[in-house]
Design brief:
With about 750 residues, the chain is an alpha/beta fold. It contains 23 helices and 31 strands. It has 5 domains: about 1-90, Alpha-Beta Plaits; about 110-165, no CATH class; about 185-355, DHBP synthase; about 390-495 and about 735-760, Nucleotidyltransferase, domain 5 (2-Layer Sandwich), CATH 3.30.420; about 535-730, ATPase, nucleotide binding domain (Nucleotidyltransferase, domain 5). The structure holds zinc ion (ZN) (2 copies) and fe (iii) ion.
């Protein structure tokens, strides 16, 4: 029996090689008919035997094309039309704005073999791409995704390129960034003054400079990177000194998985993600013997590693044969530099040379960062290679929602139907540049995805600029959402669970419903409600933000709360090594309650222990004290410290005085830091279990969702996971969005939707 099937597919299916893929599938199944792009997505008519059609439908649904995302497939069966063969037909008129834009795609293997084939006309051409690979999101100015709406619009294709572009059987058919050496963008090598260097070949010249130890800024897909030889101590030290970045780890780029395996331990899942189309930075366990400079990731067990994802990277790594430091080019907290003129202007005190080109980046996008945990990818930063593909939810949102995120690691999101468009990583909203980027990106996303928010969700923090932005909007409904509630619901939505959970939110800072700073929270949560059932006791933060970068202040203040004047007689290095004047100031502030804020933050408790044990008293990047404490923890240590519980107004407070006293006793008895660190981690994991059991017994809830930046701590996460699963809990943590504040917007959106639904009832 012959039959014809008519298929409509919606999703990220244009500009990603979807038609050639369908073409090949149809031929494989002996079908005739055609495929084309239309205003909605992709339209297919295919006919053949019933069996072949069935197999074809299964294969389409089971799509093995990682760069495409299908939101919806509809199909109808009808009588055959008598097609003779299978064709790719020209697109039907497109003026609807709703076809989603693809993320940026790493160079494909077909393009790579051309790139390194001396006989190919694109041999060594650093902008080679096709329908399966190349820039997308970062070059799109407007929709629909056509060349005229990208930063490629100013390049007129030569005859050969336009021939490929027009030919449905060519793998560059409608590849919008299609170009070659004759008609396309070109590289130049500039010196510090922005003057072009007289070189025959930019790549060869730049490779030589890198080999000689210079720092080169190069333009990638989403912005500039600073690169230098990762085995050259002087080059790395220079980069650190010039970037004023004493400790924060740099990522490195290696040519292939094999090279990564020489530097780091790597399992199959890690290799798959490292070599996959998204090309994130993957955190891998550093090997003890290593050619790269220790300074690249000081005091770390992990290295951020990524493989080349643009032809320029491939050429540079191949030509130089180096392992390269590859770090975002920005000045301290400002966003990544992405315009040529800006690059020379802002980076001339850091970079010695610049590789620039005349294909403009329209929207800056940092590299994504992830790790593999329990065989699953866990995103720490969701950006280039993932943005702007939407997350698909089970449930449709009733309104178009804008969720503004938090002020640290800002990511906002917009929703339409069951699609959640998470923005690229915007950064910390503490300077004008980032704030501008936040506002511009919101309007860019609204336009690109044709979303007109009628509901806006924001964090309750009175000083967040993201919240100020939200509150200033006109003609929209606005909902403020508690930070840790958003964290937990983000984790629930990430895992697509809707049942009530025990939500455990551990982070550095979040504005609490009582006006204090929360961060060690045990919440009973569903999408529209939370109840705070337990938390760390409040302890003082003397002097606000300053104390966060100087954890010794918080540690000292806590010691005074616990020991009073006896603190001075403790005779521990932590106090003995501090300046007496400073000690007196903190003591005075604590005693007289001057300029103290109060927090239940688990992140700060890690900072305190890090400071007390002498691991880190002041920090140079966010989370440093806690990270360095984690890195030294002895995995074989199973001891724990004491802590107490106090009942207050039906809530449990976790009292930490005994914990601190135990740690001080260990310090005084000369116990080593790796033991103290491990015992502390074990204790926190124990708190998680104890509170989960307490809530299960009183509320009958058996699922635990973890969220917050503290759960980037693998030593802790491993232990919490083991304790909870051993005790029969359902365990949920983040995968698709970060556990840190970069995942908050998702929770805000889902809560806002649920609250509005509740109001409508
Ligand atoms: Zn390609
Ligand atoms: Zn050309
Ligand atoms: Fe947070």
């Amino acid at each position: 029996m012959e039959t014809r099937v008519i298929i409509n597919i919606k999703g990220v299916v244009q500009g990603v090689g979807f038609r050639p893929y369908i073409y090949a599938l149809a031929r494989e199944h002996n079908l005739s008919g055609f495929v084309l792009n239309n205003t909605e997505g992709v339209y297919i008519e295919a006919e053949g035997s019933n069996d072949d059609i069935n197999d074809f439908l299964i294969a389409v649904k089971d799509k093995k094309l990682p760069q495409a995302v299908i939101f919806d497939i509809q199909y109808d069966q009808t009588d055959p039309a008598g097609y003779k063969q299978f064709d790719i037909r020209k697109s039907e008129h497109r003026d609807v704005k709703s076809v989603p834009i693809s993320r940026d795609l790493a160079t494909c293997t077909d393009c790579l073999s051309e790139l390194f084939d001396p006989a190919d006309r694109r041999y060594g051409y650093p902008f080679i791409n096709c329908t399966n690979c190349g820039p997308r999101f970062t070059i799109v100015k407007d929709v629909p995704y056509d060349r005229r709406n990208t930063t490629m619009s100013e390049f007129v294709m030569c005859d050969q390129c336009s021939g490929e572009y027009e030919d449905p059987s060519d793998r560059r058919f409608h590849a919008q960034p299609n170009a070659c050496d004759i008609c396309g963008p070109k590289l130049s090598l500039l010196d510090k003054e922005g003057e072009a260097m007289p070189v025959d070949d930019v790549i060869t010249g730049a490779a030589r400079l890198l080999t000689e130890g210079y720092i080169v800024a190069l333009k990638g897909l989403g912005g500039f990177h600073l690169a230098c030889d990762a085995t050259n101590q002087e080059a790395v030290s220079n980069l650190r000194a010039r970037k004023y970045r004493e400790y924060k780890p740099f990522a490195i780029m290696v040519n292939n998985a094999e090279a990564a395996g020489q530097l780091c331990e790597m399992n199959q899942e890690e290799e798959d993600v490292l070599t996959g189309i998204q090309r994130p930075i993957v955190l891998l366990k550093k090997r003890a013997v290593n050619v790269i400079v220790e300074d690249i990731a000081p005091n770390q067990q992990y290295l951020g590693v990524l493989l080349p994802y643009s032809p320029l990277h491939h050429l540079l790594l191949e030509k130089s044969g180096l392992v390269l430091v590859m770090t975002s080019a920005n000045i301290s907290a400002e966003p990544i530099v992405y315009k040529d003129a800006d690059a020379v202007d802002r980076l001339r005190n850091i970079a010695d040379f610049f590789i620039v080109h005349n294909r403009e980046i329209h929207i800056r996008t940092d590299d994504s960062v992830c790790r593999i945990w329990q065989g699953k990818e866990m995103l720490l930063r969701r950006s280039r290679g993932l943005t702007p593909h939407p997350l698909l939810m089970k449930k449709e949102c009733s309104a178009h929602i804008l969720a503004c995120g938090a002020d640290l690691k800002n990511v906002f999101c917009l929703t339409r139907g069951n699609q959640v468009y998470m923005s690229h990583h915007i950064g910390d909203l503490d300077n004008v540049e980032t704030l501008t980027s936040f506002e511009k990106s919101i309007s860019h996303f609204k336009g690109k995805f044709d979303i007109k928010p009628d509901l806006v969700a924001y964090d309750l923090h009175p000083k967040y600029v993201s919240s100020k932005y939200a509150r200033a909007l006109d003609n929209v409904r606005k909902i403020g959402i508690q930070h840790h509630f958003a964290h937990i619901v983000s984790c629930m939505a990430d895992n697509e669970i809707e049942e009530k959970v025990i939500g455990i939110a551990f982070d550095g800072t979040g504005f609490g419903a009582d006006g204090n700073i929360w961060g060690g929270e045990f919440l009973l949560c569903d999408y529209n409600h939370f109840e705070r059932l337990a938390h760390l006791e409040y302890f003082p933060i003397p002097g606000g933000d300053h104390a966060v970068v100087e954890p010794w202040r918080i540690a000292l203040s806590l010691l005074f709360r616990i020991y009073g004047n006896h603190m001075m007689k403790l005779n521990i290095d932590f106090i003995n090594q501090l300046d007496t004047d400073k000690v007196m100031i903190i003591k005075h502030m604590t005693e007289k309650n001057i300029n103290l804020s109060w927090t239940s933050s688990m992140g700060r408790l890690f900072d305190i222990v890090s400071a007390l044990t002498g691991v880190r008293r002041e920090i140079y990047y966010e989370g440093q004290a806690a990270i360095e404490l984690e890195m030294i923890a002895d995995p074989d240590e199973s001891g724990v410290y004491n802590y107490n519980l106090k009942d207050s107004e039906g809530r449990k407070e976790i009292m930490i005085a005994d914990l601190i006293k135990d740690i001080i006793a260990d310090i005084k008895s000369g116990t080593d830091r790796k033991t103290i660190s491990a015992k502390f981690h074990n204790t926190v994991a124990g708190m998680v279990l104890d509170m989960s059991i307490f809530i299960r017994e009183s509320k009958g809830i058996n699922s635990v969702a973890l969220s917050g930046g503290v759960f980037q701590n693998m030593f802790l996460l491993d232990r919490v996971h083991r304790l909870l699963t051993d005790n029969g809990f359902n365990f949920y943590t983040h995968h698709r969005v970060p556990t840190n504040d970069g995942g908050i917007a998702l929770g805000q959106a889902v809560i806002a939707d649920a609250l509005v639904e509740l109001l409508m009832k």
